[in-house]
Amino acid sequence: MTREESESESDNEVVENDAEVIDDEAENASVAESDKNRRRSKRNKNKNKNSSHSSAVKMSTTDPDYHVIKRVVGNKTKEIAVFSTHCNPGRLIRNPVHGTRTNDRVGSFAERNYFRVRATTIGDGTVPVTLYYDSPEAYEKHMRTKVPNDLKSEWRARNNI
Q1: Is the pTM of this model over 0.85?
Q2: Shared-domain flag, residues 101 and 148
Q3: What is the pLDDT of residues 100-111, one digit of tens each?
């Protein structure tokens, strides 16, 4: 083999090695890009998962009965989304946790089946707001508080539960 042939052969090897390096770099870049997209997607999923009031936040601008209460639970301040029901007779009773309206109306006999809580700290202060829970336990779970046992037993006796 002549000197020129060996030089051209070594040049071909360099070109082939450079092509492999470029291919490796492109593959690494695409892997890095896909990892980046995967992390971004996971972060967005976690953001949506962690925002427990994501659908409620959308409603807050259009729904006057939507409120956010700040409660101290342990040593942390928690935000609790609440859907209220005005005390005007004839209004549909609303679930304070999910915001769904029931077929029962304020002032009807069916109103007695709910555990009612008058929330004086919610709203503008001119119209009292009432929360209608299915049971005292539902209130405890939603508001992260405790209801005295005598109130629970009184409510159960009135509702024959």
Answers
A1: no
A2: yes
A3: 999 999 999 999
